[in-house]
Amino acid sequence: MRTTIHQIQRMKEAGEKFAMLTAYDYPTAKILDEAGIPMLLVGDSLGMVVLGYETTLPVTMDDMLHHIKAVMRGAKQALVVGDLPFMSFQADGDDAIRNAGRLIKEGGCQAVKLEGGERVAETVHRLVEAGIPVQGHLGLTPQSVNQLGGYKLQGRTPKAAVRLLNDAHALQQAGVFSIVLEGIPALLAQRITSRVSVPTIGIGAGPHCDGQVQVIHDLLGLIPDINPRHAKRYASVAEIIGDAVTRYSREVRDGAFPSAAESFGPLERVQPVEPSKEASPATP
After folding, report:
1. What are phi and psi of 246, to 5 degrees?
2. Confidence band (pLDDT; 50, 70, 90) for 226?
3. CA distances (Å), 40 to each of 22, 119, 249, 276, in order?
4. Catalytic positions, please?
5. What is Dmax (Cα atoms) for the chain?
6. What number does CATH give the domain 5-214?
7. pTM of the prediction?
């Protein structure tokens, strides 16, 4: 049975911490789903960790739909959230409803995520009224990287902290089922978490949020030269892959792979088929 937004809400009410991870393809989604991760995010972060862009800004709706569909084929129990990419919801509410509807209808995910606070509250309200569950995203919002001047900690001044508190309340009033808090001081995240009734999910926001989310590539060490301060590397999968393909290449060069034991057996001799007498042309 698939996790619902109501179950996520009950986790907060019960004081039960929960994990969220990103997924961008079928095999990863299947592994995370079978491991019991209750919520998966198909984030526009795929632009950087899958497609190789420097930011998330080039990611398109078609990119998101492609990856959401793959994740949905692998995840059968987790609640899957799809990111609304840059300029898919900022222009007007009609665009937002149309694009969010595509992620739900065509992609198959159960909820969408969008960045921003008070300025997107009306859009969030319209999406929720249309029957689309929405996850908010405050703090370090990657789609605003050019305006923020880089990937910097947010909410460090009293004025900025008050603004984020107001943004969180605005999102809650608009109807979000949860809020991602990225790159803000731990004490501010704790204050927001205690003052809103919806679950908060931290990434670089300290230990006091209701849940935590990480980019799967950071957690597994799939891109060694990307190691954010907020991430914890639980494995070094890039090294394992590099070692495996190096050994494979060496064995191919040395003629050690494939060995006779790893090859198919000899083909059975094919007996010639006698031509049918009935099909033979008549002799004069």
Report:
1. -65, -45
2. confident
3. 5, 26, 35, 63
4. 182
5. 108
6. 3.20.20.60
7. 0.91
